[in-house]
Amino acid sequence: MWELPPLLLSTRLQFLRRPAARTCMAGYVPAEGGRGRGARYPPLSALVVSAIAAFSAVIVLAVVHSAYDATVSRTRTLLGHNLEPTPWHPFPHAKGRPPARAALRCAPSVACLPPLARPRPPPPADAANASSSAAPPGIGKRRQCPAYFAAIRRDLAPWRRAAGSRGGVTRALLDEARRRASMRVTITGGGRRLHVDLYYACVQSRALFTVWSLLQLMRRYPGRVPDVDLMFDCMDKPAVNRTEHGNGDPAAPPPPPLFRYCTTRDHFDIPFPDWSFWGWYLPETNIEPWSREFKSIKAGAKATKWVDRVPTAYWKGNPDVASPLRVALLGCNDTGLWRAEIMRQNWTDEAKAGYQHSKLSSQCTHRYKIYAEGFAWSVSLKYILSCGSMALLIDPQYEDFFSRGLDPRVNYWPVSRVGMCESIRDAVDWGNANSAEAERVGRRGQRLMQDLRMAAVYDYMLHLLTEYAALMDFRPVPPPTAQEACEGSVLCLADDKQRRFLEASAAEPAVDEPCVLKW
Ligand SMILES: *[C@@H]1O[C@H](CO)[C@@H](O)[C@H](O)[C@H]1NC(C)=O
Ligand SMILES: *[C@@H]1O[C@H](CO)[C@@H](O)[C@H](O)[C@H]1NC(C)=O
Ligand SMILES: *[C@@H]1O[C@H](CO)[C@@H](O)[C@H](O)[C@H]1NC(C)=O
Ligand SMILES: *[C@@H]1O[C@H](CO)[C@@H](O)[C@H](O)[C@H]1NC(C)=O
């Protein structure tokens, strides 16, 4: 805590110890009052002592206040207080000081005190074999992981290759990755404690929700999340250029390992589930945690059967996200010529109307739904696929963790960027000529999303972290500047709306084993 100078402290204590009544009465003793130098409590010296004491008290308060002030002006939070936005992707950010509540009550030393009774974790007998492909006998059939989990191996290949000779994920590589990271996450204590070292602010509440996602993983699989040390960038665009880092040449030194929400075939960034699975609330968006949102979209999709769906393609979104693709898409807005209806989502208006018209569940009215990337990957992909309409994906450049499960002409229809409007028209014309097959493509896309339950999202996180941890050549230790994060500290920082989503997306300890990876 704050250190008081010892001198002031002792003066203050003397002042407190002195009986207050006597000090006061001293002023009212008329007989000896005038010249009482020889008295035990001469009024003059009493006055001097009181004055010094009062003065000291003021100084103590000032010291305490300035110590408090210094603490608050240094306290970094997951909401970006006292942090600059990332230099590689600046955004408007009033870094500000945390409110007193966040600085004091939400401090991990207060908010992360262990609960009186911890739920007893299941024996971790199987933990070391979480990734093993053999089902333990007697436990019954374990689910096999969806096929796209195999991408974990591809994503981590550069470090696995190096694991023999150069030591896989090293501290030096992590230091290199730090230059493009907004935070460092350290999980220790047998997967029970999480520390975060904050370097830059993340846009909106991404950092808060991403740390929450990891805490929920720890809650779902108590004691089974491996100890890890990882660098995370919460901004959109991948940063680890493949050609600049050896292009997969086994002789080249491995690239810096950097986690983020997406990657491309030309990058080595490691994709991790984005915040929107736990909900995305802004003044402008109101997207529920994924488990709820999928249910409601699926119910909405049931309301309009395929035959009753409008036989054209539909897109509704925000074209103003520095995406040339979405701007170009506005040019295809002609149901006669291009069979496409392109609607501008004005979030300001939507918010005023209580999101009644932007409800994702009421947007499953067309047989074809267009997906156009925004500034990078877009969280809208999963909502579009959930409708059961045939998804027309305009040549995606970015991959998130599950989009590697997409299969052209099987669970979506590819549309090219070049001659985009013609390509949309041709896809719609094909679909209307082959209605049953188009419907099946739509259903398989919806099925992919159905299988993307939160259980699968957590399993992906667990397997990814387990495989990554196995490549680390050092024991993770939280750096001295890191602060602990726990459910209490995250909930405490959140505003009411954010807290509603966080609480709604809280995980329960798993009853099933994680799915089995098949490489
Ligand atoms: C993991 O599996 C191997 C064999 O597949 C076994 O020898 C080992 O004991 C298992 N470890 C644990 C912790 O169950
Ligand atoms: C990667 O770096 C190379 C060489 O600097 C450059 O030509 C290429 O455009 C970069 N790729 C990406 C995807 O940024
Ligand atoms: C697209 O066309 C429709 C119908 O003509 C119109 O209502 C809508 O505003 C247009 N969309 C945009 C983004 O201009
Ligand atoms: C959205 O609507 C508001 C008024 O409701 C208007 O001021 C704003 O310019 C609109 N935004 C766009 C991008 O059209």
What's the quaternary structure here? single chain
The whole-number mean of residue pLDDT values reads: 86
Shape: globular
- Number of spatially distinct domains: 3
Strand content: 5-15%
Bound molecules: 2-acetamido-2-deoxy-beta-D-glucopyranose
Uncertain segments are 1-36, 132-138
Total count of strands: 13
| Helix percentage | 25-40%
Helices, by number, come to 18
Which secondary-structure class do the elements indicate? alpha/beta
Identify the strand order in the major beta sheet: 9-8-10-11-12
The largest sheet, given as strand count, sense and whether it forms a barrel, is: 5 strands, parallel
Query: Over all CA atoms, what is the radius of gyration?
Result: 30 Å
Distance between the termini: 52 Å
What does this structure look like?
The protein is of the alpha/beta class. It folds into 3 domains: 6-74; 100-111 and 129-274 and 456-504, no CATH class; 282-399 and 403-450, 3-Layer(aba) Sandwich (Rossmann fold). The protein contains 18 helices and 13 strands. The strands form 4 sheets. It has a 5-stranded parallel sheet with strand order 9-8-10-11-12, sandwiched between helices. A 4-stranded antiparallel sheet has the order 3-1-2-13. A two-stranded parallel sheet has the order 4-5. Helix 1 packs across helix 4 (43-74) and helix 13 crosses helix 15. It is globular, with a radius of gyration of 30 Å. The two termini are 52 Å apart.
